[in-house]
Write the structure tokens for this entry.
Amino acid sequence: MFAVVKIAGQQFKVQQGQNLYVPHINGKEGDTVEFSDVLLVDNDGTLTVGADVKAVVKAEIVKEVQGDKVIAFKMKRRKGFRKKHGHRTLYTQIKVTGIA
């Protein structure tokens, strides 16, 4: 059984017991979160798509991590203009506990 879920504007294919990294979710380690924006559910070969889906995906927050460093560097030649910005995006690792 798997489902396609929309989390923070991105779509993820999830199965029970799966660990995945999603954009930052508010909460502490060990908290339970529910995602009700389910786009597709496959239940033993039976597909349910669109408005007919009445499913909820439950997950547990495992930990919060930072992504790789991303550097945006701007420069205009012969002008002495250099600008450097960098950031590390926050991600949340979740473990899917159930699809109902």
Q: What stands out?
A: Residues 2-99 form one domain.
